[in-house]
Amino acid sequence: MFEALCKESPLALLLERNDWGEYQHLMDSLREWSQYGLFTNRFLTLDRGALFTSAVHGSGHIERVMLLGALLCMLEVEKSEDTALVMDMCAYHDVGRVSDWLDEFHGARSSYKLEELTGRAGEELTILRAGVEAHSRRDADMDQVLAKYAPEDLPRCRHLAILLKDADGLDRVRIGDLDPDYMRTPSAKRLVPFAEELFKRYSAAQEELGQTPIKRDFVDRVILEQVRDVVQEGFFTREEDSAVTVLRGLGEVFDTALSPQLLQAAAAVSGAGCSGAQCGIVEGALLFIGLYYGAKGKTAAEIAAVSRAFAAAYAEKWGSLRCAELRPGGVHEDDPPTLCAGLTLEGIIFTREFILNERGQ
């Protein structure tokens, strides 16, 4: 069934071989499930050109989430029409992404593309859009998000939205950040070991096909959540720009006091007033480097050397130091103020690792 895709899709290769070791019984049950055809149909007809291009949230993530979503539906869903909706949500929940990191509203952007991608209308489209928007928001916001769409059957809509969240969450194994306690359904908790095995087998299949498996970057969960909270507050509550938010984030993780004057000055440097010049993430990081190493007794020449090394490392990783080239889609007057939230989170983590490595830690 999957022969045509086996040269490009690791999951197609795994499904065609049907060799799952200790999880063979689980996968045999899936293949014998009366609704298995809904999964295979959505997988074979997936519009891969519409997916976000990324090693973290791209086609590999989508393929695994679709399989995990099918397993959850087998365990949690009775009606075939509900399974079909979950498959559509799993397939296209990330098409609105602009970053691999914090991007709370990528679900909302994805939801606007669902009508064209799925051809659905009416109540089905309402459920799709509600569930996809809710998946990128905090659990505490789910009911508010779903209610905004006014689905005819709110409990049904909520159930399917939770299944998408759990299918998406199970694939957090790829970034070493899956906590079973965050799973919402008993079935998802049961599938945690399989999600890990699926990722390992998928990575091996990628290597076999000459593809580069995703490298898992294990970031300390406490640090990640600390930085995420700073970025969340900076962009969505304080409405501050990248430079100021980077300073606040680095000040938090290195326990460094920031003067009000420094934060006021930093507000002027992000892309030179959003003109597309040097990125505010870079500017904020460089300001912090000057503050941090100055407090450590470094000379001006030594601080300049560290700054040059940081700029070179940043440019090597992202290809530029300029806002116009790093900002998703370039710089436009109507850009939402939160567009660079994900890049800012990633920039804080990168700068933290740079400083720790430079210190030899």
* Helix fraction bin: 55-70%
Shape designation: globular
What is the CATH domain class of the largest domain? Mainly Alpha
**Beta content:** under 5%
Query: Could you tell me the mean pLDDT?
Result: 88
Calculate the terminal CA-CA distance, rounded to whole Å.
51 Å
Polypeptide structure, described:
The chain is mainly alpha-helical and 361 residues long. It folds into 2 domains: 3-208, Hypothetical protein af1432 (Orthogonal Bundle), CATH 1.10.3210; 221-358, no CATH class. 62% of the residues lie in helices and 0% in strands. The chain is built from 20 helices and no strands. It has helices at residues 10-17, 24-32, 36-44, 59-76, 80-92, 106-111, 114-118, 122-135, 142-149, 154-170, 186-190, 192-208, 221-236, 242-253, 260-266, 271-274, 280-295, 300-318, 323-326, 341-358. Helix 8 crosses helix 10 (154-170).
Secondary structure topology:
Blueprint: H1 10-17, H2 24-32, H3 36-44, H4 59-76, H5 80-92, H6 106-111, H7 114-118, H8 122-135, H9 142-149, H10 154-170, H11 186-190, H12 192-208, H13 221-236, H14 242-253, H15 260-266, H16 271-274, H17 280-295, H18 300-318, H19 323-326, H20 341-358
Helix pairs in contact: 1-12, 3-5, 4-5, 4-10, 5-8, 5-10, 8-9, 8-10, 13-14, 13-20, 14-17, 14-20, 17-18, 17-20, 18-20
